[in-house]
Amino acid sequence: MKEYHVPVLLSECIEALDLQDGKIFVDATFGGGGHSKKILESGKDIKLFAFDQDPDSIEQSKILQNKYPEKFVMIKENFANIRTGLALERIKKIDGILFDLGVSSHQINDPSRGFSFRGDGYLNMRMDQDSLLTAADVVNTYSFEELTKIFREYGEEKEAARIARNIILERSKKEIKTTLQLSTIIENCIISHKSIKAKARIFQALRIYINKEMDVLQTALNDSIKILNLGGRIAVISYHSLEDRIVKNLFKYEEKSCICPPEFPKCVCDKVSTLKILTRKPIIPTLQEIENNPRSRSAKLRIARRRKVL
Ligand SMILES: C[S@@+](CC[C@H](N)C(=O)[O-])C[C@H]1O[C@@H](n2cnc3c(N)ncnc32)[C@H](O)[C@@H]1O
User: Which of 62, 102, 52 is nearest to 82 (CA)?
Assistant: First the structure.
C-alpha cells in the first residue's frame, strides 16, 4: 500500500515547537499524521490537538487516537476556525502550533480528488468534500474575466487570458468534467516545453481558489498568534511563493513595535510587537531530504515565538 504522506522537515518542525511537559500543542494540518505522530512519540507529557478538513485524514487519525487516547484529540474543522474548534474542547491558550500547508500525497495521488493533472479524474479539488464548489463548476460557469483573474492571481500565469479563452471555447462544445480534459486544453494552447509548468500553475490556481486557501491562511495565522501563550511557537511550512509571502509579511508585521511613517518625529501608534522571528531566512530541506522525498523540494519553514510583552 502507498504511504499516505511523507512528512517534510520533520526534525526541524519538532525542534521548532520546543515541546515541553505540561504544554498544549496544535497540528493544524494533520494529513497522514506524520508530524503529529512524531510529536506524540517525543515522550513529553503534552496534549496535542490536530485539525484537518478532509474526512480521509480523520479516518487516518484513528490509529493515533487509539494509541494516545489521553494525549491526542482530532478535530474535523477548517483551520480558519481554530479558535472555535479549540474552545469547544475548552482550550483557550496553546504553547505551539504547526501548519504544513497545501495538500497531502494521498490527496494528490487519488485521481478522484482532481488535484493532479497527471492522473485522470473528476475535476473536483475540494479538500473538504462536504463543501459545494468544485473546480468543474468554476471552469464551466465562470466568465472569461473571472477565470483570467484566478489564473493570474493564484497561479501567476502569464498566459492566463489565452488559457481562459481556450477553456471558454472548448466548454461551448463539451462540458469540461475531468482533469485530463482541462490538461489537454492547456496543452493545446501553450507551446510544448512550457505546458507542464502552465498546467501546474493553472491547477494550483484553481485549488487555491476552490479552497479559499489565502483567506483561511491569513485568518488562521492571526488567530493562532492571539491564542499563543507567551514564549509559544508558531511554525509554518509553505510550498509556493503566495503562501510564503503571507507568512513572511505577517511575521514581520507582528514583530514590529511601531508602524508610524518614518517621517514622524516620535511614535504615536499603539503597535505592540507580538512575535520574535526565529528564522530570518526560511529553513529549507537538505539535498538528502529532497532526494528521498522530491515533494519536499519547494518547502520553506518559518518559525516565530510569541514575545514576552514587557
Ligand atoms: C501537506 S498535508 C499535511 C501533512 C502532514 N503534516 C503529515 O505529515 O502527514 C496538508 C493537510 O492539510 C489539510 N488542510 C489544508 N488546508 C486546510 C484547512 N484550511 N483546514 C484544515 N485542513 C487543511 C489538507 O487536507 C491536508 O490533509
Answer: 52
Helix H or strand E encompassing 97: strand 94-100
230 alpha carbon – ligand 1 mean position (Å): 26
Ligand 1 site, residue 32, Cβ cutoff 6 A:
yes
Candidate CATH numbers 1.10.150.170, 2.40.128.590, 3.40.50.20, 1.10.10.970; the one for domain 132-210: 1.10.150.170
Spatial contact of 195 and 189, defined as CB atoms under 8 Å apart = no
* Ligand 1 contact, 33 CB (< 6 A): yes
Please say whether the structural domain 10-106+213-306 has been given the CATH code 3.40.50.150. Answer: yes
Overall pTM > 0.85: yes
Would you say 136 and 194 are in contact if contact means Cβ atoms under 8 Å apart? no
List the pLDDT tens digit at each of the 310 positions of the chain.
468 999 999 999 999 999 999 999 999 999 999 999 999 999 999 999 999 999 999 999 999 999 999 999 999 999 999 999 999 999 999 999 999 999 999 999 999 999 999 989 999 999 988 889 999 999 999 999 999 999 999 999 999 999 999 999 999 999 999 999 999 999 999 988 888 999 999 999 999 999 999 999 999 999 999 999 999 999 999 999 999 999 999 999 999 999 999 999 999 998 999 999 999 999 999 999 999 999 999 999 999 999 966 5
Domain parsing of the chain, residue ranges = 10-106+213-306, 132-210
Pocket test for ligand 1, best of 27, 52, 223, 295 (most atoms within 8 A of CB): 52
Cβ of 74 below 6 Å from ligand 1: no
The atom number, within ligand 1, closest to the CA of 220 reads 19
CB proximity list for 72: less than 8 A, separation 6 or greater: 36, 40, 47, 48, 50, 64, 65
